[in-house]
Specification:
Length: 238
């Protein structure tokens, strides 16, 4: 797995269960101008090149997720991200702009996709973020996340503790939490899900509409391309 340069994988599916991806998504090997597109399949079943049906589905958005934006959006932008990934840093700024463009219509969900083999600080940062959320809630989580992406070069356990202290958290409790395995299963849950969905690099994103349509794409796409996909998702909302 690796950081993903701006490329696109897309597919649209429909489920009767809102905010739940009904079928797995696979990458079709169609490369056009640097973009990789995913093929729409009938009957809500994604089929691998071997013809074998795939069963993976995106985890539904719940109260346990870290959500920024409206509480009842038309579309969730679910991003599987790595705190140490330079493309994730770039895409972070893009999603901020997307939420401004689609105020009240799109909410952002952050999930973990640490590339442990190449980014040694990705998982510690993810665990630290969960410990920040434990004490400070959703707002503190997003504040921490914004600060990490604003300066990835300073990533370290000392920096995470510093941010926690600046947020008014109990730094002793935070440090104990961050150095433990308390949230390892949470991070691994997100990681397993994105791998099952076909994610091979970061960032990997899913647009999930209120009526269950989904569009997936990989990489730090520029805002113009993301807006095209968001518009497509919004058109499917009834």
């Amino acid at each position: 797995m690796s950081d993903t340069t701006p490329t696109e994988n897309t597919t649209t599916t429909r489920s009767s269960n809102p905010y739940l991806l009904p079928g797995a998504i696979i990458i079709a090997g169609i490369v056009i101008a640097g973009a990789i597109f995913m093929v729409k399949k009938p009957a809500n079943v994604a089929v691998a090149p071997t013809g074998k049906p795939l069963e993976a589905s995106v985890l539904p958005v719940t109260s346990e997720d870290h959500v920024f934006g409206p509480s009842n959006p038309d579309v969730y932008l679910i991003e599987y991200s790595d705190y140490q990934c330079p493309y994730c840093q770039r895409f972070h700024d893009t999603v901020v702009e997307v939420l401004k463009e689609y105020d009240g219509k799109v909410a952002w969900v952050y999930r973990h996709f640490p590339l442990d083999s190449i980014h040694p600080e990705a998982r510690p940062a993810a665990l630290a973020a969960e410990c920040v959320a434990e004490q400070g809630g959703n707002d503190a989580f997003w504040n921490f996340t914004n600060q990490i992406f604003a300066d990835q070069r300073s990533m370290s356990s000392d920096r995470y503790t510093e941010i926690a202290g600046n947020l008014g958290l109990d730094t002793n409790a935070f440090s104990t939490c961050a150095s433990s395995d308390k949230y390892t299963s949470r991070v691994d849950r997100d990681l397993t899900n994105v791998i099952d969905l076909g994610g091979q690099g970061t960032p990997f994103s899913v647009l999930l509409t209120r009526n269950g349509d989904t569009i997936t794409f990989s990489g730090a796409l520029p805002i113009e391309r993301v807006k095209v996909l968001v518009d497509r998702a919004l058109k499917s909302v009834k």
